[in-house]
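Quick start: read one record
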Amino acid sequence: MADFFPSLLYAFATLFIILDPLLSVPIFVGLTKERPAEEKTRQAGIAVVVAGVLLFVFLIFGSLIFDILGITLASFQVAGGILLFILGMQEALGIEFAHDEKSRQNMAGVIIGTPLLCGPGAITTVILLSTKISPFVTAIALFLCLGVTWLILRYAAAILHVLGSTITDIVARVLGMFLAAIAVKLIAEGAIGLGW
C-alpha cells in the first residue's frame, strides 16, 4: 500500500502529460465556437468517452489487438500521424473540412478524442504503464486523468476568455503548426519502424 500512491501519482502525471488536454483547449474552442453551452458540454463528453473507451480497451487487451488485426504500432503511428497532420493543417490554415451540420456537431468530440487525446503515444503509454506498474493502478490514474480532461474541455472557453479572441486565434494557428510537426515526427518514427 505504501507504493500505491507514488505509483498512482506517477501514472497520473505520465498520462496527463501524454494526453495533454491543455493542447486541446484552443482547438476545442475553435471547433465549438458559436455552439450553445449544452453542445459544448456534450462534445467535451464525447471527446473524453472516445479517448477513454479506446484507452481502456488497449489497457485491458494490450498488444493482442494489434496481433489480431495484423498491424504494428509503427503502422498505427503512421495512420495517427496522417490524421493529426490533417488536423494541424486545418488549424494552422483555418481550413474547414466539414460542411454539413451533423458532422460539424460531432467533429470536435471525435477529433479531440482521437487522435489528439488518444493517439499512438497515449496507447503505448497505457500499455507500458500497465506492465510496469499494474493494470489496476493504471486504470485508476487513467480514470482520474480523463475526469480532469473533461473539466478542462468543459471550461475551455472560460480558460481562453482571459486571453481574448486575437490571442486565441494566434495560439490556435501556432498550435496547428506544432500539431503538424508532431504528426510528421510520428509518421517518420512509424516509417522507420516499418523499415521504409
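The mean pLDDT is 83.
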